[in-house]
Predict the structure.
Amino acid sequence: MPGLPRRGLLGLGGTLLAAPALGQAPAVPPLVVMEVTGAGLVLPLLQDFANAHPGLVSGVALEQIDVDVITEDLADAVAAGQSGIDLVFAGDAGIVAGIQAEAWQPATDWALDGLPPLDGLVTPAAMSLWRGFAGLALPILAGPNGPLLGWRPGRVDRMPRSPAELLDWARENPGRFLYGRPPLVTSSRLFLRALPWLLGDSDPMRPATGWDRSWSWLAELDRHIDYYPTSLVAATAEFRDDGCDMLVLSVAGDLEMRASGLLPENLGASAFADQAWALAGISAAIPRDLPADRRPVVAALLRHLLSPAVQANMLFGRGADAGARLRLDVEGAAQGTLHADLRAAGSLPLGTRLMLPRPGLLAPQAPLLQPLGWEDALEAGRIWDARIGAAHGLP
């Protein structure tokens, strides 16, 4: 990816959200943002920011990218001081990839100067991610997000409620269970994170030394899996095209994929009986080569995203997460009607229908798992690639 011109707009894959009139030079440059595919957050939030700050930005240019772009083209452009990017929004996989590539600068000092303490602005779940990222990315929303198992109605008679039952089902139905490559797919990272808890491993926080049961279980499961998609979109397309009958999902992925029509609305989904919820979120990362004259714009955007008005309307935001336990703010548990409008919060693509969490799915009594630190998260992905993915030709 060549360096992107700071005063211009993004090229391939770019979306112009707001701009000056045709032929009229902007008084101030646009905000240039990248969003890792699947983040599903920033479109309406950036539009609101641009509308509220016409003196800071003339518009917003957004480019959606895949996770591997961070460790390849974007990292090279940042190292050369030529990225032209103001901010990157990504899920945990993208943030960890950028930390590994040394693409981000700390979201401290000027970025948060003058704000109240961060733990008063975001949820305890987001603070856990903040610590796991060593302050190199700012979680905008975070909460208990998975894992879930989704299945095709009419093809699965009895939903597996434990890893042992899932392994038995996979043996009996070879090639019909699917999960994505964990270093790149958030739902699969949550699956990987929960397994040491579910299987009783010796140290669930240390993939290299404490996950013996999990790695053995995954190796056995691998015997009954044909391949591993590298994105949730690819996994759901495989499901849609009858390539599997069961797959790993997250809460957010379940909502978004059903709302957008990529998964059937009657898709079955459930958690494990002894569920432990792994945390996931969307975070903002500041490229290491951001020029000093762009700092005021980025700082203003971060303040907008952390404001009570924005946080209160987010799924798992300040208005919808009790923090210590999973509790979506709902009006009437039987109806399962979300208090917050997920579309307005940016949790679903524009133009899609609002989908609701499944009644009884969210298991509020289940414990929350602390996220791995970024080094251990990276190590978990490396071990999976070496022990599982390599046999399928994955790098």
Remarks:
- Residues 56 and 297 are 6 Å apart (CA to CA).
- Residues 1-14, 18-22, 319-356 have pLDDT under 50 and may be disordered.
